[in-house]
Specification:
two-stranded antiparallel ribbon; AKR_Detox_Biosynth; alpha/beta; oxidoreductase; Aldo/keto reductase; NADP_OxRdtase_dom; 350 residues; TIM Barrel; NAD(P)_OxRdtase_dom_sf
Amino acid sequence: MRYTLFGRTGLRVSEFAFGAMTFGTDWNWGAAEDEAARMFDLYAEAGGNFIDTADVYTDGSSERILGRLLKGRRDDFVVATKFTCAPAGGGPNSGGSHRTSLAASVEGSLRRLETDHIDVLYVHARDLFTPFEETMRALDDQVRAGTVHYVAVSNWPAWEIARANTLAELRGWSPFAGVQLRLNLLDRAAERELLPFAEATDTAVVAWGPLAEGRLTGKYLRGEGGRRDTFRFGTDLARDDETVRAVVELARERGWSPAQVAIAWLTTRPGNVIPLLGARSAGQLRDNLAAGDIELDSDALRRLDAVSAIEPGYPDGFLGDPTVHQSIYGGYGPGPIDDRRRIAMRPFTA
């Protein structure tokens, strides 16, 4: 396992994060505690140290199970959790990114995790009712109190993360060091704004959904069941299947699994991208971890990028048009916009 820095901090995290969302059977599809323990140990033995959960995952069982697994080795791991989402049966102030919700969530997470601090606390999603100034100040209060060491954000637009971080830096508060976002070969929308923002500001990217709810393993092409309809966002399923077939074909040619190809592709994205692995069995996790031994050559990347490419959208699509490009730079400017966004940060070796 290799390691990298978490954004513009000195915090060392492994190249793959491990998602504990599957810890617990409360939601009818997760792993029982004994299997969660096997996965946790397997990840630790591979050198992984970056564990991801949330206050609401499996109705709190994820944090409780993780807390028990961390006993006696808490300092060996970077533990990340989240707040914002309302727990089942909660009142009107039980969710959201306001100060009251934050304080209650952190208190509950510390209790369930059986720890005195959270290494990384994410704002789980944008709460449109709470001013981001309140959220940023409340997060900084937790950092100053020592209950949280670093703050990060998930499921926010790039412009608002930039605005929040600018405010935090001007006022001496803790800025977001990382962003957790959805990114995979079937959903590359984050490449339009979020990835360029993260690369330009040296913000760590934790990529969730790397296998697109199992679609990129090829199991649906084989007629197997699962959660195919989760997070489709109106995508073209016929086009998605074409991408999956390309992944499966490449994997067969090179002697890899389709999951390994999909995860390895994520590590080639611009900036500091950390795939978030989410497995329901030790066997799945073992296969996913082996993606760290894969290096996709230029031909493999060309094939995967071509079949999964998305339209750049406005303004990048407009600015990249040859006529517009010529009118701006007169033939003497930089190359296409993507050329300056493909500088990968290489993780250092422990």
